[in-house]
Amino acid sequence: MFSGETVTISIEKFKRRRSSYQNRWYFGVAVEYIYQYLNETGNQISKDDTHGLIKVAIAKRYPQLMLGEIVIESSGEVLKRIKSTTELTTTDFMAYKEAIQEWAVNTFGLDIPDPNT
What we know:
By secondary structure, the protein is mostly helical. It has one domain. Helices cover about 50% and strands about 10% of the residues. A two-stranded antiparallel ribbon has the order 1-2. Strand 1 and strand 2 form a beta hairpin. The N and C termini lie far apart (about 50 Å). The model has no long low-confidence stretch (mean pLDDT about 90).
């Protein structure tokens, strides 16, 4: 199937990605609370842009959690990127959740409830 092609095989430790439960809380509660607040206070912003705003805000405060790297092979340059929330492990997502809640209280005065409360 790969005859004559260069292929890469990688083996890495399995990491459990964020759960569907965490995903539902994130978009159904956290993003929704912040989205509604921003729109009620005169900002025209979509839910998708709200999601992006949250990622940027948390990446600034917790770069170790949210920033990844891309290496440009030809130049060796290392570029920073904000990870997709789908890349977060379940443990990382719990830290992300707590960071969002802290940021929302400090920035907007919003108390975003924990799941199941």
